[in-house]
Amino acid sequence: MKSIAISGSLRENVGKRDAKELRYNGQVPAVLYGGATQTHFSVSAADLRAVVYTPVVHFIDLEIAGVKSQAIIKDIQFHPLTEKITHIDFLLLDEKKPITIEIPVKLTGTSPGVKVGGKLVQKLRKLRIKALPKDHLDAIEVSIESLEVGKSVKVSDIKLDNLVITNAKEDTIVSVTTSRALRQAEQEAAQGKK
């Protein structure tokens, strides 16, 4: 999985006034959980754009006061009007502990059902995956090569080594439905045979 490096500065004071001043100066208050203690720090709002406003999932190589660690984003709080990031939580990664994160679904191939006029409907764009950090993928590829009209790919159809999908097994990832044009063509063909 891809990593992005972000550096942060330790916060001397933790409180509303301090957080407000940080935001005014283009910084975002942050917390790193998962270690022996919580680490309160701040990061540049500009540095966060590359990891927050993207569908790609990244591990984050954090450097706080000279201490390097690898983490993932656990929670983000946004301002309700401006939608600027007001606070961010990171979770420290442990190579021996599995973590659950959402990974994007990438459709591959061309569906024969779409070629004959069916409509491709993708219901799940991300899947929740539980695995050790070293086993996580950038994306989960789902082949639609065999999808005819009326067929679908469910979570239970996806088999991955060293990864556990925590979504419900019966959830549909992608399906090919009958489009209005195809339905109309079938009705016209049926009427023509009478």
TrEMBL record:
The family database entries (Pfam families) matched by this protein are listed as: Ribosomal_L25p, Ribosomal_TL5_C
Indicate the segments forming the Large ribosomal subunit protein bL25 L25 domain, all copies: 7-90
Q: Which UniProt keywords apply?
A: Ribonucleoprotein, Ribosomal protein, RNA-binding, rRNA-binding
Q: Name one GO molecular function term.
A: 5S rRNA binding
Q: Which GO terms describe its cellular component?
A: cytosolic large ribosomal subunit
Keyword presence, Ribosomal protein: yes
Domain Large ribosomal subunit protein bL25 beta: start-end pairs: 99-179
Among the GO biological process terms of this entry, one is:
translation
Q: Which family does it belong to?
A: Belongs to the bacterial ribosomal protein bL25 family. CTC subfamily.
* Subunit architecture: Part of the 50S ribosomal subunit; part of the 5S rRNA/L5/L18/L25 subcomplex. Contacts the 5S rRNA. Binds to the 5S rRNA independently of L5 and L18.
Q: What job does this protein perform?
A: This is one of the proteins that binds to the 5S RNA in the ribosome where it forms part of the central protuberance.
HAMAP family from the entry? Answer: Ribosomal_bL25_CTC
Spell out the protein name for this chain: Large ribosomal subunit protein bL25
Species annotation: Mucilaginibacter gossypii
